[in-house]
Amino acid sequence: MEDVICTFCGSVCDDGEFDAEKKKVKKFCRLGSAKFSEKERIKAPMVDGKEVSYETAIEKAAEILVNAKKPLLYGWASTANEAIRLGVILAEKLRGVYDQCASVCHAPGTLAVIEEGLPGATLGSVKNRADVVVFWGSNPAEAHPRHGMRYSISAKGLLIKDRKQRKVVVVDVRPTKTAKMADLFIQVKPGYDYAVISALRAILSGNADVVPSDVGGVAKEKLLQLAEMMKNAKYGAIFYGLGVTQSRGRDRNVENAIKLIQLLNRTTRWVIWPMRGHYNVVGAGEVPAWEVGYQYAIDFSRGYPRFSPAEFSAVEVLKRKDCDAALIVASDPAAHFPAAAVKHLKQIPVIQIDPFPNMTTLLAKVVIPSAVYGIEAEGTAYRMDGIPLRVKKILETSYWTDEKILEEILKRVEKLKG
Amino acid sequence: MLWIRNGIVIDPKNKIKAEKMDIFVKNGKIVPEGEVRREECRVIDASGKLVVAGGVDMHAHIAGSKINTGRTMRPEEMRVVRNVAGKFRAAVGRVLLTAPAIGYEYAKMGYTTSFEAAQPPIGALHTHEELDAIPMIDKAALPVFGNWHLVFKCIEEKNLEKLKALIAWAIERSKGFGVKVVNPGGVEAWMYGGNVKSLDDQVPGFNVTPREIITMLIKANEELGLPHSVHLHCNNLGVPGNFQTTIESIKLAKGFSNSKRQVLHVTHVQFNAYAGSSWRDAASGAAEIAKVVNSMDNVTIDMGQPIFGHATAMTGDAPFQFTLHKLTGARWSNKDTEVETGAGIVPLVYLPNNPVHALQWAIGLELGLLVDSNKVALTTDYPNGGPFTEYPYVMAMLMSRKMREGELSKVNAYVQKATGLASIDVEKTLYEIINMTRSLPARILGLQNKGHLGIGADADIAIYNLNPLETDTSKDFEKVYKAFKSAEYTIKSGEIISRNGEIVKEVFGRTFWVDARKKVDMEAVMNDIRDYFQYYSVQLGNYGVEERWIKKPERLEVV
């Protein structure tokens, strides 16, 4: 089968070739290939560790959710839009909280969008037009292995034909694998991204004289060099990663970078875009945005959506012990959340829907295994730049899809609530 | 089955001017009396009430990446709660609404159809997901063509057959409805930080001009015989002096004719109707545009009326959006899309005491008043000019000089010298207003079963608490406004979905798409498409939307 779509990272490569006999996929990177190779699965639905039927597990899940005063519905970055939509509707119906993985990842970027907007482009625009690409606090060589080849570093575009016609810059706190491929590497002292961006803005607005000789560990000469490159670019792109959103300054770093882009667009063309992680973390924000107005950290306890990241993101809700049940879909908060949050998760009934066992499985009361989107199930996912792709079913399975499981839970919940 | 008794019907398509009559509905359609058994009908007593077809919004931005980025960028818009979750979905939004709120608000107003006016073809699946999430109404989307490299190539080669095949292919792949053109050539120029300034500017990197793009797209569209004409957002939008470009663009329709409809629809003309050389001396060019539109029988327009208050500018016209950002200092989102198109989003507020905003407001009304009511449809270019929920305000204003005088006294006096609004004594009749919001937009779009109440029409019906025989729309504008704000009944495909401005039943409408594949030789373009896909970031095989992914698709085949 051709044109197979990878459901691992935010690059969502769609040119895979799947050999059904060998159960192997060609063209994908090692991360994608690993996703498409066989691995340990949750065997069957379980309640309190005992194997049960899907129907029984769903019945129990619905009961837990309906009896909860304020359930937390969290995860969603590695499932399809169809399932996410049902999750949002379920959260609304239950007067619970909807939150998704971005709240511990790229959400500061969303806050920056609220402050300044998002002057961006699709990856296809960058591939065809960008003569300068800057990776800021992102490391595609390891996190999005085919990004460079398909869209950014060595992509063969219409106007920019190959690597030779493109300059690549890496700004990071350490010499990463991507930095080795760059024309210019700028090493910033951890926590100094904001200052470095401000210095670039000062230089580009004609105030180079106020910039000291060293900013955040970067010599002024290097900053002047980068500013010159930026100014002379015909079409430049900044791809930022967690190095920017999860270091000191967080959303303010991104906001500052967007202001830099606004400035650059007064004389040439520049765009900025986040390097999103999970294959459909964009969908986990876009779907609730059209259904209820916000991307994440949404509380429905009043019967209508309210957005407040400092209150309603999953970690905050758990730390405050402000939820009395949790539905975790396609995520592993038990492994990734702070100890104080996990502590509360251990004390409340947890329902997990996931194809694969993980740390969260160990503390879940109800475990419902599901089909893997892109391999065993079809559904819509948004690539990191928002381009929608319909991921495919290439193998038969007896596992239910997240969509079917959530649809059944929603039906049961509606019935129980009367 | 429904029997709507004794209503006063206005149905411009069927030339019914406020006649007392009964309407019968069966299986979602309007049927002759003989086809129903009266005793089996649910009877609606519409005595003394206005009975009209459901409203048709022919140009609004209701679904897709633009409005959704707008929502993400503007959480402050979402703090107006319109419905608390219960029997129906939670619905929130001030001007930018969530998908459920869009459906509910249209239904409350007696509107039953709305078209998403600009869809980047590669993002079609997202647009359709959002359209599917909008309850209550029928819908469709118009893919954009005016800055697509493949379109430029066909035009450079002057290869009409290839262009026709490309259009048929793209509309089928995106499950779209027609040919939308946004600032032809200008968005491509923006990729280098520029714009085009006249119909004869060359598009950077291509041997084509906006004039050639518009003309050849009209030609292709007409040869394909699509239900809708080319739908044009003109060059130079938002630039003082642009009314000249608009007139020149309108005149490009000369030489084409179609017995069923216009051959060119020019959209949200208010934004393209400015005289003057800068915002210091800007004035209205509406009268000149109206003169040209009225003199031609193959062009229609819609208003793009600004409503004072909050709005969000979102268009495929990316260079204009950047200009707006520089002008206001507001947040700015931009999306350059492959080698297809672009877009931008900027928050906006229209203030009555701001001379430019007051000017825009007056120009919109001038267009609505001066253009023949069979050639101008009522829109706010939602959410660019403001909310669609204020259509009743625009309707009432067009019908009442007295209301206009009251409103004029509240806005910046600059409009008195820069526009002719104060001296316009035209008062549209209720019949004309029903035409501008029903029959005309349906005819412009080529929807034969919409916008009227003749036999065989879709049973999309609005009943308003307004007796046309007893209401003086010129004096009773408050009553008119109130009546149109919340329909007494809104009926969608024969089902009562809203009563007195309250949702009573949630339904999901159809998504129309046009299939013109039989009209072309697809091989004429497939080699070019295959070749071009090396520059895309997705595989050709993964591009597009299948019918089975859409909730309720309805294919309109062009033969």
What does this structure look like?
The complex is a heterodimer of chains A (418) and B (559). Chain A has helices at residues 30-36, 54-67, 81-94, 107-116, 123-129, 140-143, 147-150, 193-204, 220-232, 242-245, 251-264, 281-292, 309-312, 314-319, 333-336, 339-347, 359-363, 402-417; strands spanning 17-19, 24-26, 46-47, 50-51, 71-75, 97-100, 119-121, 132-136, 167-172, 184-187, 214-215, 218-219, 235-240, 269-274, 298-299, 306-307, 325-329, 350-354, 366-369, 376-382, 388-393. Chain A is of the alpha/beta class and 418 residues long. Chain A folds into two domains: 41-105 and 279-417, Rossmann fold (3-Layer(aba) Sandwich), CATH 3.40.50; 107-274, Dimethylsulfoxide Reductase, domain 2, CATH 3.40.228. In chain A, α3 packs across α12. The relative contact order of chain A is 0.19. The mean pLDDT of chain A is 97. Chain B is an alpha/beta fold and 559 residues long. Chain B folds into two domains: 2-52 and 452-503, Urease, subunit C, domain 1; 55-445, TIM Barrel (Alpha-Beta Barrel), CATH 3.20.20. Chain B has 17 helices and 26 strands. In chain B, the strands form seven sheets. In chain B, strands 1, 2, 3, 4, 5, 21, 22, 23 and 24 form a nine-stranded mixed β-sheet that branches. The longest helix of chain B is centred in the middle third of the chain and has 16 residues, at 355-370. The radius of gyration of chain B is 22 Å and the shape is globular. At the A-B interface, α3, α4, β7, α5 and α12 of A face α1, α3, α10 and β18 of B.
Please give the structural blueprint.
The complex is a heterodimer of chains A (418) and B (559).
Chain A: E1 17-19, E2 24-26, H1 30-36, E3 46-47, E4 50-51, H2 54-67, E5 71-75, H3 81-94, E6 97-100, H4 107-116, E7 119-121, H5 123-129, E8 132-136, H6 140-143, H7 147-150, E9 167-172, E10 184-187, H8 193-204, E11 214-215, E12 218-219, H9 220-232, E13 235-240, H10 242-245, H11 251-264, E14 269-274, H12 281-292, E15 298-299, E16 306-307, H13 309-312, H14 314-319, E17 325-329, H15 333-336, H16 339-347, E18 350-354, H17 359-363, E19 366-369, E20 376-382, E21 388-393, H18 402-417
Parallel strand pairs in A: 5-6, 5-17, 8-9, 8-13, 9-10, 13-14, 17-18, 18-19
Antiparallel strand pairs in A: 1-2, 3-4, 3-19, 6-15, 11-12, 15-16, 20-21
Chain B: E1 2-11, E2 16-26, E3 29-31, E4 42-45, E5 50-53, E6 55-60, H1 65-73, E7 81-83, E8 91-92, H2 99-108, E9 111-119, H3 124-133, E10 138-143, H4 149-156, H5 160-174, E11 180-182, H6 186-190, H7 210-224, E12 230-233, H8 243-251, E13 264-266, E14 274-275, E15 283-284, H9 286-295, E16 299-302, E17 309-315, H10 318-328, E18 333-336, E19 344-350, H11 355-370, E20 376-377, H12 391-399, H13 401-408, H14 414-418, H15 430-445, E21 461-464, H16 477-485, E22 489-492, E23 495-499, E24 502-503, E25 511-515, H17 523-532, E26 553-557
Parallel strand pairs in B: 1-4, 1-5, 6-9, 9-10, 11-12, 12-13, 13-16, 16-20, 25-26
Antiparallel strand pairs in B: 1-2, 2-3, 5-21, 7-8, 14-15, 17-19, 18-19, 21-22, 22-23, 23-24
Helix pairs in contact in B: 4-5, 5-7, 5-17, 8-9, 9-11, 12-16
